[in-house]
Specification:
single chain; mainly alpha; two-stranded antiparallel ribbon; 2 strands
């Protein structure tokens, strides 16, 4: 990420988004002690965690980024203490010195050939005096050195934690003070390893090291001025007693949560100066250890304890390792299954793909009603007229009767389409679910007249007996129709469950019994391997202007071809399954009561040779049928090219494809 973008995000966007929202919701937070305690402890943990992690980073921008997290924790602590004005004061101060730190780090990175590892810096103070000066000012403001901008807000947050005079506030005071100590350590580490220590980088970096132009230097100077003076100038506006800056109720502090007076006058001087004491002492200790006795740090780092401590904190308390090992993979798998089942499955079927297929099927069903017979058209007009007249009366009685009529009409269309058209074939999308297709198939299987009629008769009979038993002569038609409607819903639910279990079988490849042979198989047999588009194309390419009689004969010829192809494929599948069963158990076919013996009664001997010959015969017949389909398709397309070609010639040429009825 470019360093100016980092400065904007860490100084303005990221901090403002969260903490500013908490400040604006102060009327809600003030009446929830749970949220206040949560903010208090989350801020304390975040401060220590991020400052300790930043201490062990080697990238200059990572150190400053973890510093932002630490200061963000300080602001959340102020929110948890109901000191929203102090949180806003620290937010504005932090924006100046953190933006200055990032831009100063960008100037250093620009000067040393875009290298961000400050272990390869060192000795840059003579080459970058302005950058060193402004980063020193920003670091002093960050560690809350007296009379810098950060001193007036950061130390006041620590004092407020103690000034609450609760046990939790006192503990948070010490935790935040420890976080401030680590903040001092990594600030000294960045300044020392970058500007003060011996040069550790390649000599080419120092040959080309230079200060930026006026466009890079001017923002640094402006931010440095604000980092020094802004806190002193505006402290009475933000945190002064009796300040009217927030008189417009932009923030709300409950009177019982007001701790400003206790913080200012009741906190002992020792606890006010304790953060400053730790800041100065740790800065001196860090510089002395690095400058005069560096071997102590090196020896400790190369011990087993030092190695483990450094690795643990450098790897962010191993939290990212835990994420990548246990959470990331699980989330990715869940996302993949969600995409497969919901996005490419249910949503596609209910959305564009299913809508397209449903409209195509509906238009095909409606077009199948066009038979060219005038009496059929008259019947359609009569049925529509009767339904149009009955609609108001049906609505007055019960809406379920109208729904029942519509369901019956859809069932008739579906059954008609199942009889006359080619079995449905779904497009082979890689992640497509067949749940919708299985549901329609089960609807067609279960909503048949022999199954529905007994149910309707039994429901109506029970309803009549109920009314006669209670002695009422008037029969409530709506109640009867409601009972019928419940029966229809029960059938539909049964179809949904059947479709669901078939979908589970397709997903997990559970063994099922094949309907054609009765054998236990683990793969679903695809009975129809031909592309239905072949028939659709041949139908659409026929010359409709030649007359309806020729097109009717042509379509009947194609229907007979399709029936033969279906017959040969079923025979071929049955023969292959019989061969598999014979190979597994030769004595399987000796049982007289097995229904497969009836299927293959024309085969004298149940042996492998007879089955192989049967398979070859059916394969040859299937090839002949396929060739005939191709020839007829070519013939239909040639009609447009040759206007003198008649459909009678196509029928004469295709008579040779017809096979013996005994096959």
């Amino acid at each position: 990420m470019p360093t100016p973008v980092s400065a904007l995000i860490h100084a303005a966007t990221m901090v403002t988004a969260g903490v500013y929202l908490l400040m604006r919701t102060s009327p809600l937070i003030e009446y929830s002690s749970t949220v206040l305690i949560l903010c208090l402890w989350l801020g304390a943990i975040t401060t220590v965690f991020s400052s300790l992690t930043g201490l062990f980073q080697q990238d200059i921008k990572k150190v400053i980024a973890y510093s932002t997290m630490s200061q963000l924790g300080m602001m959340v602590i102020a929110v948890g203490l109901s000191s929203y004005n102090i949180a806003l004061f620290h937010l504005v101060n932090h924006a100046f010195y953190k933006g200055l730190l990032f831009l100063g780090a960008g100037a250093v990175i620009h000067a040393v050939s875009d290298n961000q590892d400050f272990r390869k810096y060192g000795g840059l103070r003579p080459f970058l005096p302005l950058t060193y000066s402004v980063m020193l000012i920003a670091s002093l403001s960050l560690v809350a050195f007296p009379f810098m901008a950060g001193f007036y807000s950061k130390d006041f947050i620590l004092e407020s934690a103690y000034g609450q005079f609760y046990f939790g506030g006192t503990v948070v005071y010490f935790i935040a003070t420890i976080g401030a100590m680590f903040t001092t350590l990594y600030s000294v580490k960045v300044l020392y390893l970058t500007f003060l220590t011996n040069p550790n980088g390649p000599i080419v970096n120092y040959k080309h090291a230079h200060e930026g132009d006026i466009f890079m230097s001017l923002p640094l100077i402006i931010l440095a001025i604000f980092s020094i003076f802004f806190g002193y100038v505006t402290k009475d506006i933000f945190i002064g007693l009796g300040s009217g800056f927030f008189a417009d109720n932009s923030i709300f502090i409950h009177p019982t949560h007001e701790i400003m007076l206790d913080t200012e006058f009741a906190v002992p001087t020792l606890f006010k100066l304790l953060p400053l004491f730790f800041t100065v002492s740790l800065s001196v200790i860090a510089i002395v250890l690095s400058e005069f006795i560096p071997k102590v740090l090196i020896i400790f780092k190369f011990t087993r304890l030092g190695y483990n401590v450094f690795g643990f904190f450098n790897q962010r308390f191993l939290i990212e390792l835990f994420y990548n090992k246990y959470i990331t993979g699980l989330v990715l798998k869940l996302g993949g299954q969600t995409t497969k089942v919901i996005d490419r499955g249910s949503v596609e079927l209910l959305g564009p793909y299913g809508l397209e297929k449903g409209l195509i099927s509906l238009s095909r069903n409606i077009s199948s009603l066009d038979r060219g017979v005038i009496t059929s058209y008259a019947l359609y007009i009569l049925i529509g007229f009767i339904l149009y007249i009955l609609i108001p009366y049906l609505a007055l009685i019960d809406n379920s009767l109208l729904l029942l009529f519509l369901l019956a009409l859809i069932s008739v269309l579906a059954v008609n389409n199942q009889i006359k058209s080619i079995p449905p074939k779904f497009v082979s999308l890689p992640l497509q679910s067949r749940l919708f297709h299985n549901f329609l198939v089960n609807i067609r299987k279960n909503f048949t007249l022999p199954k529905i009629l007994p149910g309707l008769i039994s429901v109506v009979t029970l309803a009549l007996a109920r009314y006669l038993y209670y002695g009422k002569l008037h029969i409530d038609v709506s109640d009867i129709l409601g009972n019928i409607n419940w029966g229809v819903i029960a059938y539909a639910i049964r179809c949904v469950f059947i479709s669901f279990f078939e979908e589970l079988h397709l997903l997990f490849k559970l063994p099922v019994i094949d309907e054609t042979t009765g054998l236990l198989t683990s793969k679903k047999i695809k009975s129809y391997k031909l592309d239905s588009n072949m028939y659709m194309e041949s139908n659409t390419n026929s010359d409709t202007n030649r007359g309806r009689e020729h097109s009717t004969e042509d379509s009947s010829n194609k229907a007979s071809i399709k029936d033969d192809i279906d017959y040969y494929q079923r025979e071929l599948i049955q023969a292959k399954n019989a061969k598999k069963a014979l190979n597994k158990n030769p004595s399987f076919w000796t049982s007289d009561d097995h229904f497969a013996a009836n299927i293959y009664k024309e085969i004298d001997d149940f042996n492998e040779e007879a089955l192989n010959s049967h398979i070859k015969d059916n394969q040859n017949k299937l090839k002949e049928a396929l060739n005939s389909i191709k020839k007829e398709t070519n013939t239909s397309s040639s009609i447009k090219r040759n206007p003198d070609y008649t459909p009678e010639e196509s029928l004469v040429k295709n008579k040779s494809f017809r096979t013996d009825e005994s096959n």
